[in-house]
Specification:
Blueprint (H helix, E strand, L loop, with lengths): L19 E2 L11 E2 L2 H14 L15 H4 L6 H18 L3 E11 L4 E10 L5 E9 L2
Antiparallel strand pairs: 1-2, 3-4, 4-5
Length: about 140
């Protein structure tokens, strides 16, 4: 008889201890705790996508730098560059994340970029999706 076993992170075995914080911050309490690694990985990915290169002290290569792309003309070539950048940066900085589907869509009228990707956590085989829309307001 075959069993489908999955690895569980040790941190997830203690549900009363926070692993990290949710993004975006809420107005009432500012920080809302996250209690499992699947959710925290999602918020870490969102934070990583929104961080510009050189913004994090002592780690100048951290981040994808999506906000800087909003001031460029949105064309198919720039969207493909963003997609390539996301794939390589996530692969280098998140070894436990495997991107399954990634789409980067741009709207030149509103000067916005919509990123939608699904991923698998390699250690626990859990899947999740990140949908992020960035616009020049």
């Amino acid at each position: 008889m075959a069993y489908n076993l999955r690895k569980i992170n040790v941190v997830d075995l203690r549900p009363s201890i926070g692993v990290g914080i949710k993004l975006p911050f809420s107005a009432a309490t500012a920080f809302t705790s996250v209690y499992n690694t699947k959710e925290q990985t999602k918020y870490n990915l969102i934070n990583f996508l929104l961080t510009d290169k050189g913004e994090r002290p002592f780690n100048p290569t951290f981040g994808v730098g999506l906000r800087s792309k909003l001031f460029e003309q949105i064309a198919q070539v720039s969207l493909e560059e963003i997609e390539t950048s996301i794939k390589s940066q996530v692969e280098n900085n998140f070894p436990n994340v495997l991107i399954k589907n990634l789409s980067v869509l741009g709207d030149a009228d509103t000067n916005s970029i919509k990123i939608n990707f699904s991923y698998v956590l390699t250690n626990s085989k859990e899947t999740d999706t990140v949908i992020l829309e960035i616009q020049n307001a």
